[in-house]
Amino acid sequence: MDYKDMKFKVWHGCDRGLCHKGCGRQDRQLNTFDWLADVPGNNQTTDLVEVQFKNTRKGYYHNVNNLDLKKGDIVAVEANPGHDIGVVTLTGRLVKLQIKKASGIKSPDDIKRVYRLAKDVDMQKYQEAKAREHATMIESRQIAKGLGLKMKIGDVEFQGDGNKAIFYYIADERVDFRQLIKDLAAAFHVRIEMKQIGARQEAGRIGGTGPCGRDLCCATWMKNFSSVSTTAARIQDISPNPTKLAGMCAKLKCCLNYEVDDYMEASRKLPSKEVLLETMDGEYHLFKTDILSGQCTYSTDKNLGANLETISAERAKEIIEMNRRGEKPLSLLEDGKAKPAKKSADLLAGADLSRFDKAKKRKKNNQQRNYNGQQGGRPQRENRRNQRDQQDNSRQQGDNRRQPNENRRPQNSNRRPNNGPRPAQQQREGATPNGRNEGRQPQKTERTQE
User: Fold this and answer.
1) Span 406-423, mean pLDDT?
2) Rounded alpha-carbon distances, angstroms, from residue 135 to 145, 296, 382, 420
3) Given pLDDT bands bounded at 50, 70 and 90, which one contains residue 24?
4) Which of 82, 110, 292, 371 could form an SS bridge with 163, CB 3.0 to 4.6 Å?
5) Rounded distance, CA 264 to CA 231, Å?
6) Which long-range contacts (CB under 8 A, 24 or more apart) does 122-129 make?
7) Quick one: how many helices (H) and strands (E) in the chain?
8) What is the DSSP string of 105-119?
9) pLDDT band (50, 70, 90) for residue 379
10) Mean of the pLDDT values across residues 113-124?
11) What pLDDT, on a 0 to 100 scale, did the predictor assign at position 164?
């Protein structure tokens, strides 16, 4: 095919339901996927738009000026007083569904208007107001501490035009902050609004990563927080460890409620813990269960795990029905056969320990045979040499035992000293380097005269 003169066109369609209009143009929290973004006439079905502000705060507004708004556009919306700056996060039919889930809207009159797309002047004021938030939060904490109020100011949000500031605080008890509002208004010269939030809302506003490795649910998609109790952990057979069950907000994890319904439905198919299984081998007590896989582990001891056997829930119910009819199976096995005898766990059972000695003796003989083959006739020559040396030593010791006596035997002047070497031995000492006894030292024997 000739691609030289062909005109190419950039494709902006969707693939498998994923579209750039539904996903992108924002990296904020609580992002909603607009799966109706490419449906023709979606934006004309309603003039409502969803606008998000700092962190997780959202609002819903009427597009009375019929602006061509898309996801990610920065707009100026109506506020009391002045105007605020936010980002469009949703348009079209899905906005109506989002309004039904929102808890802050009580009547249609609470929905305000979208003024315009943000201009450069609006963005400049917005950046100046945002630059004051951190210093304002630090100073407001010092003011609240000076008044002795038991509260924590977690965040401060300025309105887009800088005329209003929202102070988010956490308190376990009711706080009388009338004097605090007066001091804050005198210090910052803006309109003050106090808004109480919980620990979960604070974690959602700050954001973070959970123990699962993903972003926090309260910071990505969760808007309404339902109560979580330890009953959910007990139903799912989770260990009641506070450090494992608590989330980033130091409260029980919201995800404990996600699968409770599935676990409750699956647990109805399992046998009761109070029912015993009677077999020819003995009685079995329910030790533990795997709820999702439907496996039950039984033990012969009620409190300890002894002779554990794992069977399916259907097999357990079958044995229960047999016990009600007065029948007892041979074992808990599926086929009803007797339980096979366990083999000995002793690895040395029936083994001969002397097998190692035989191997060592055979190895030693092989090494000696190899050594003799390498050395040739040298060991035999060494043995003959050692025998001659022993004979010489015995003769020398016999001569030393004789005591000198001039009357009985004349002394021979030519006789060698007692401690001196024999002539043959002297000859061996003076042998050439190639001699047989090269470097051999004469053996001297000393005898004490009695």
Assistant:
1) 50
2) 16, 60, 100, 110
3) very low
4) 82
5) 11
6) 122/76, 122/83, 122/85, 122/160, 122/161, 123/74, 123/85, 125/160, 125/161, 125/162, 126/85, 126/160, 126/161, 128/162, 129/158, 129/159, 129/160, 129/161, 129/162
7) 14, 12
8) --SGGG-EEEEEE--
9) low
10) 93
11) 93
Tell me which amino acid residue 55 is: N
Q: Give the C-alpha separation, 158 to 85, whole Å.
A: 10
Give me the domains of the chain, ranges plus CATH numbers.
20-118 (no CATH), 127-204 (3.30.300.20), 226-265 (no CATH), 269-338 (no CATH)
Contacts 24+ apart (CB under 8 A), 261-269: 262/292, 263/235, 263/236, 263/237, 263/291, 263/292, 264/235, 266/291, 266/292, 266/294, 267/235, 267/291, 269/294, 269/313
pLDDT greater than 60 at residue 154? yes
Six token digits for residue 403: 């005591």
Nearest to 314 by CA among 288, 287, 332: 332
β partners of residue 236? none
pLDDT, tens only, 229-253: 889 998 998 888 888 899 888 889 9
Q: Which residues, at least 6 apart from 321, have a Cβ–Cβ distance to it below 8 Å?
A: none
Query: What residue has token string 């260990």?
Result: 239
Q: At what angle do helices 378-401 and 355-375 cross, to 10 degrees?
A: 90
In terms of Cβ atoms closer than 10 Å to its own Cβ (0-12, 13-18, 19+), residue 236 is middle
Q: In what order do the strands lie in the sheet with 309-312?
A: 277-278, 283-290, 295-299, 309-312
Position 190 scores a pLDDT of: 92
The secondary structure element, H or E, covering residue 388 is helix 378-401
The Cα 232–Cα 234 span in angstroms is 5
Q: Tens of pLDDT along 29-66?
A: 677 788 888 888 888 888 899 999 987 888 899 999 98
Task: Check pLDDT > 70 for residue 214.
Answer: yes
Residues 119-131 as b/e (b if ≥16 CB within 10 A, e otherwise) read eeebeebbeebee
pLDDT for position 367: 66
Amino acid at 157: E
List the one residue out of 286, 336, 290 whose CA is nearest residue 308.
286
Q: Which residue has the tokens 């630059």?
A: 131
> What whole-number distance in Å separates Cα of residue 78 and Cα of residue 227?
34
pLDDT at 382 over 80: no
| Of 30-34, 173-177, 376-380, minimum mean pLDDT range | 376-380
Distance CA 32, CA 211 (A): 23
Q: If you average pLDDT over residues 142-164, what whole number do you get?
A: 92
